[in-house]
Amino acid sequence: MECLLGLACKDFAIVAADQTNAHSIIVMNNEENKLFKISNHMAMGITGESGDTTQFAEFIAKNIQLYKMRHGYELSPTAAANFTRKTLAQHLRSSTPYMVNMLLGGYDTNSEESSLYFIDYLGSFQKVPFATHGYGGFFCMGIMDRFHRDDLTVEEAYDVLRKCVTEIHKRLIVNLPNFKVQVIDKNGIRDLEPLTAKKLQTS
Q1: Model confidence pLDDT, tens digit, residues 153-165
Q2: Are 77 and 108 in contact (CB under 8 A)?
Q3: DSSP readout, 112-176?
Q4: Residues near 85 by beta carbon (within 8 Å), at least 6 away in sequence
Q5: Which SS3 state, helix, strand or coil, does residue 94 take?
Q6: CA Rg, the chain, in Å?
Q7: Which residues pair with 17 in a beta bridge?
Q8: CB 54 within 8 Å of CB 62
Q9: Cα–Cα distance between 75 and 121 in angstroms, integer?
Q10: Rounded to the nearest 10 degrees, how much is the dihedral formed by the CA atoms of 29, 178, 166, 172?
Q11: Cβ atoms within 10 Å, residue 33
Q12: Cβ(4)–Cβ(16) under 8 Å?
């Protein structure tokens, strides 16, 4: 029932995640952070079992920081995504699998390109121009396919996500009122204004 949305354009990647933390039929809160900073130019949106998501995201982030301390430079988004996929696949074959789905967005300062990676709990891995996770994504792939371009500005990409979240609020039976949005570019990671049901109703 959780939802992740992501777009990769020429100069930046943008990811959004719902902020609903639910257990069974009970909503615990609507301010859960599902976007994790992996490095200065990489962010991960992650959903799944609540314990697994935090533990796995922190495990990946700390290992990438350790790599930087040992070698003096950061992993590229491609290398970090491959490491994440390998770690997930190794645990899948052990007695302690992580039940998590991810979108990894990053900006490579060497090649000056942004990228977005789709990774699921089975270790599937693909570089994509746009992607979703969760039931909400069923309503968004058509919108992203229609409006995505490599030369989108941050404002235009944010507007595409706004269209997606509006459609989720309109069509999905589950209530996902708040979406946190982050953009990753050459200047690092920064938060954009959250997409909330209250805000979208008044706009």
Answers
A1: 999 999 999 999 9
A2: yes
A3: TEEEEEEE-TT--EEE-SEEEESGGGGGTHHHHHHH--TT--HHHHHHHHHHHHHHHHHH-SS--
A4: 119, 123, 125
A5: coil
A6: 16
A7: 4, 180
A8: no
A9: 22
A10: -20
A11: 10
A12: yes
**Closest to 11 in 3D by CA, of 143, 104, 127, 109:** 109
Beta strands in 24-129 (DSSP E): 26-29, 35-39, 42-48, 100-108, 113-119, 125-127
pLDDT in tens, the chain (203 residues): 899 999 999 999 999 999 999 888 898 899 999 999 999 999 999 999 988 999 999 999 999 999 999 999 999 999 999 999 999 999 999 999 999 999 999 999 999 999 999 999 999 999 999 999 999 999 999 999 999 999 999 999 999 999 999 999 999 998 899 999 999 999 999 999 999 988 887 76
Fold of 4-201: Glutamine Phosphoribosylpyrophosphate, subunit 1, domain 1 (3.60.20)
